[in-house]
Amino acid sequence: MDALYRAQSKKKALAEHALIVHEDEATFRQTPTLHQTWAVRNSQPRVPTKGQRNSQKILGAVCPATGQFTYRHQTEYFTADSYISFLDEVLLPTFYKRRHRVYLIQDNASYHKKPEVYSWFAHNRKRVEVYLLPPYSPEFNATEKIWWYTRKQVTHNKYFDTPEALCHSLFSNFHDIQKQPAPLISLLRPFP
Protein backbone atom coordinates (compact mmCIF):
# COMPACT_ATOMS: atom_id res chain seq x y z
CA MET A 1 0.00 0.00 0.00
CA ASP A 2 1.27 3.42 -0.89
CA ALA A 3 0.98 6.70 0.92
CA LEU A 4 -1.43 9.03 -0.81
CA TYR A 5 0.08 11.44 -3.30
CA ARG A 6 -3.06 13.07 -4.65
CA ALA A 7 -1.67 14.61 -7.84
CA GLN A 8 0.34 11.51 -8.76
CA SER A 9 -2.49 9.06 -8.09
CA LYS A 10 -5.00 11.24 -9.94
CA LYS A 11 -2.79 11.45 -13.05
CA LYS A 12 -2.18 7.71 -12.97
CA ALA A 13 -5.90 6.99 -12.55
CA LEU A 14 -6.80 9.27 -15.47
CA ALA A 15 -4.19 7.58 -17.69
CA GLU A 16 -5.68 4.16 -16.86
CA HIS A 17 -9.31 5.33 -17.05
CA ALA A 18 -9.64 4.12 -13.47
CA LEU A 19 -12.16 5.29 -10.89
CA ILE A 20 -10.95 7.01 -7.75
CA VAL A 21 -13.07 5.80 -4.84
CA HIS A 22 -12.96 6.92 -1.20
CA GLU A 23 -13.93 4.42 1.53
CA ASP A 24 -14.75 5.04 5.18
CA GLU A 25 -16.76 3.68 8.09
CA ALA A 26 -19.21 5.47 10.38
CA THR A 27 -21.27 4.73 13.45
CA PHE A 28 -24.67 6.36 13.90
CA ARG A 29 -26.07 6.32 17.44
CA GLN A 30 -29.69 6.03 18.45
CA THR A 31 -29.03 8.64 21.13
CA PRO A 32 -29.99 12.03 19.65
CA THR A 33 -27.37 14.66 18.90
CA LEU A 34 -28.21 18.29 19.49
CA HIS A 35 -27.06 20.56 16.75
CA GLN A 36 -27.61 24.21 15.99
CA THR A 37 -31.19 25.02 15.09
CA TRP A 38 -33.66 27.87 15.25
CA ALA A 39 -35.42 28.34 18.57
CA VAL A 40 -37.21 30.97 20.61
CA ARG A 41 -34.68 33.16 22.39
CA ASN A 42 -33.58 31.78 25.80
CA SER A 43 -35.35 28.49 25.12
CA GLN A 44 -33.10 25.57 24.27
CA PRO A 45 -34.81 22.90 22.16
CA ARG A 46 -35.15 19.52 23.84
CA VAL A 47 -34.98 16.17 22.15
CA PRO A 48 -36.28 13.17 24.12
CA THR A 49 -34.01 10.18 24.70
CA LYS A 50 -34.17 6.75 26.24
CA GLY A 51 -30.49 6.83 27.14
CA GLN A 52 -29.78 3.70 25.11
CA ARG A 53 -26.39 3.27 23.48
CA ASN A 54 -27.58 1.37 20.44
CA SER A 55 -25.61 2.22 17.29
CA GLN A 56 -25.63 1.28 13.63
CA LYS A 57 -22.37 0.66 11.78
CA ILE A 58 -22.01 1.56 8.11
CA LEU A 59 -19.18 0.93 5.64
CA GLY A 60 -19.42 3.26 2.67
CA ALA A 61 -17.63 4.22 -0.53
CA VAL A 62 -18.11 7.11 -2.94
CA CYS A 63 -16.64 8.12 -6.28
CA PRO A 64 -16.31 11.93 -6.09
CA ALA A 65 -16.26 12.33 -9.88
CA THR A 66 -19.71 10.79 -10.36
CA GLY A 67 -21.28 10.93 -6.90
CA GLN A 68 -21.89 7.18 -7.08
CA PHE A 69 -22.27 5.84 -3.53
CA THR A 70 -22.55 2.38 -2.05
CA TYR A 71 -22.74 1.12 1.51
CA ARG A 72 -23.22 -1.86 3.78
CA HIS A 73 -24.91 -1.95 7.17
CA GLN A 74 -23.60 -4.27 9.85
CA THR A 75 -24.38 -4.92 13.48
CA GLU A 76 -20.99 -6.17 14.67
CA TYR A 77 -17.82 -4.16 15.14
CA PHE A 78 -15.64 -3.36 12.14
CA THR A 79 -13.04 -6.08 11.60
CA ALA A 80 -10.63 -7.16 8.88
CA ASP A 81 -13.07 -9.92 7.86
CA SER A 82 -16.06 -7.58 7.60
CA TYR A 83 -13.91 -5.11 5.64
CA ILE A 84 -12.76 -7.76 3.16
CA SER A 85 -16.36 -8.90 2.79
CA PHE A 86 -17.41 -5.31 2.02
CA LEU A 87 -14.65 -4.98 -0.59
CA ASP A 88 -15.55 -8.30 -2.24
CA GLU A 89 -19.32 -8.14 -2.14
CA VAL A 90 -20.12 -4.42 -2.35
CA LEU A 91 -17.25 -2.18 -3.45
CA LEU A 92 -15.85 -4.17 -6.38
CA PRO A 93 -19.22 -5.10 -7.93
CA THR A 94 -20.25 -1.45 -7.74
CA PHE A 95 -17.13 0.30 -9.02
CA TYR A 96 -14.89 -2.15 -10.88
CA LYS A 97 -15.25 -2.29 -14.65
CA ARG A 98 -13.25 -4.72 -16.75
CA ARG A 99 -9.76 -3.34 -17.48
CA HIS A 100 -10.49 -0.19 -15.44
CA ARG A 101 -9.07 -0.51 -11.96
CA VAL A 102 -10.38 1.11 -8.81
CA TYR A 103 -8.02 3.47 -7.01
CA LEU A 104 -9.18 3.04 -3.45
CA ILE A 105 -8.39 5.78 -0.94
CA GLN A 106 -8.81 4.71 2.68
CA ASP A 107 -7.86 5.87 6.15
CA ASN A 108 -5.50 4.19 8.62
CA ALA A 109 -8.02 2.16 10.62
CA SER A 110 -6.27 -0.71 12.40
CA TYR A 111 -8.21 -3.43 10.56
CA HIS A 112 -7.16 -1.91 7.20
CA LYS A 113 -3.58 -2.92 8.07
CA LYS A 114 -4.17 -6.53 9.09
CA PRO A 115 -2.20 -9.23 7.21
CA GLU A 116 -5.36 -10.74 5.73
CA VAL A 117 -6.34 -7.35 4.26
CA TYR A 118 -2.85 -6.90 2.77
CA SER A 119 -3.15 -10.38 1.34
CA TRP A 120 -6.55 -9.55 -0.20
CA PHE A 121 -5.13 -6.39 -1.83
CA ALA A 122 -2.13 -8.35 -3.17
CA HIS A 123 -4.46 -10.99 -4.64
CA ASN A 124 -6.70 -8.31 -6.23
CA ARG A 125 -3.92 -6.03 -7.48
CA LYS A 126 -5.24 -6.12 -11.06
CA ARG A 127 -8.60 -4.73 -9.93
CA VAL A 128 -7.73 -2.44 -6.99
CA GLU A 129 -4.83 -0.17 -6.14
CA VAL A 130 -5.01 1.16 -2.60
CA TYR A 131 -3.71 4.43 -1.16
CA LEU A 132 -3.61 5.37 2.50
CA LEU A 133 -4.54 8.82 3.71
CA PRO A 134 -2.17 10.55 6.12
CA PRO A 135 -2.99 9.69 9.76
CA TYR A 136 -5.75 11.75 11.38
CA SER A 137 -6.83 13.53 8.21
CA PRO A 138 -10.55 12.91 7.64
CA GLU A 139 -10.74 16.15 5.66
CA PHE A 140 -9.09 14.30 2.74
CA ASN A 141 -11.73 11.56 2.63
CA ALA A 142 -14.78 12.28 0.46
CA THR A 143 -16.91 9.71 2.29
CA GLU A 144 -16.72 11.91 5.39
CA LYS A 145 -18.86 14.42 3.46
CA ILE A 146 -21.52 11.73 3.02
CA TRP A 147 -21.49 11.07 6.79
CA TRP A 148 -21.66 14.82 7.53
CA TYR A 149 -24.61 15.24 5.14
CA THR A 150 -26.38 12.20 6.62
CA ARG A 151 -26.00 13.43 10.19
CA LYS A 152 -27.28 16.85 9.19
CA GLN A 153 -30.29 15.46 7.29
CA VAL A 154 -31.13 12.42 9.40
CA THR A 155 -29.81 12.27 12.94
CA HIS A 156 -29.24 15.79 14.31
CA ASN A 157 -32.04 16.96 16.62
CA LYS A 158 -34.12 13.84 15.99
CA TYR A 159 -35.41 11.17 18.33
CA PHE A 160 -35.52 7.52 17.24
CA ASP A 161 -37.68 5.31 19.42
CA THR A 162 -36.19 2.07 18.10
CA PRO A 163 -33.02 0.97 16.28
CA GLU A 164 -35.25 0.03 13.36
CA ALA A 165 -36.50 3.63 13.08
CA LEU A 166 -32.91 4.88 12.93
CA CYS A 167 -32.04 2.26 10.30
CA HIS A 168 -35.08 3.17 8.23
CA SER A 169 -34.08 6.87 8.23
CA LEU A 170 -30.45 6.08 7.40
CA PHE A 171 -31.29 3.68 4.58
CA SER A 172 -33.85 6.07 3.14
CA ASN A 173 -31.24 8.84 3.06
CA PHE A 174 -28.63 6.54 1.48
CA HIS A 175 -31.16 5.42 -1.14
CA ASP A 176 -31.89 9.08 -1.97
CA ILE A 177 -28.14 9.75 -2.33
CA GLN A 178 -27.80 6.77 -4.67
CA LYS A 179 -30.75 7.84 -6.82
CA GLN A 180 -30.02 11.60 -6.84
CA PRO A 181 -26.34 12.37 -6.10
CA ALA A 182 -26.63 15.91 -7.49
CA PRO A 183 -27.01 17.65 -4.07
CA LEU A 184 -23.71 16.11 -2.97
CA ILE A 185 -21.65 16.79 -6.08
CA SER A 186 -20.72 20.28 -4.84
CA LEU A 187 -19.56 18.78 -1.53
CA LEU A 188 -17.44 16.20 -3.37
CA ARG A 189 -15.95 18.59 -5.93
CA PRO A 190 -12.70 19.32 -4.01
CA PHE A 191 -11.75 15.64 -4.01
CA PRO A 192 -9.88 13.84 -6.80
Q: Can you walk through the features of this model?
A:
This protein is 38% helix and 20% strand. The longest helix has 17 residues, at 163-179. It has a 6-stranded mixed sheet, with helices on both faces. It starts with a strand and ends with a helix. It is built from 6 helices and 6 strands. The chain is an alpha/beta fold. It has one domain: Ribonuclease H-like superfamily/Ribonuclease H (Nucleotidyltransferase, domain 5).
How would you describe this structure in keywords?
single chain, 192 residues, alpha/beta, Nucleotidyltransferase, domain 5, 6 helices
Question: What's the SSE blueprint?
Answer:
Blueprint: E1 2-3, H1 6-16, E2 19-29, E3 55-63, E4 68-74, H2 80-95, E5 102-106, H3 115-123, E6 128-132, H4 143-155, H5 163-179, H6 182-188
Short account of what is shown:
This protein has 192 residues and is an alpha/beta fold. It has helices at residues 6-16, 80-95, 115-123, 143-155, 163-179, 182-188; strands at 2-3, 19-29, 55-63, 68-74, 102-106, 128-132. The chain contains six helices and six strands; from the N terminus they run βαβββαβαβααα.
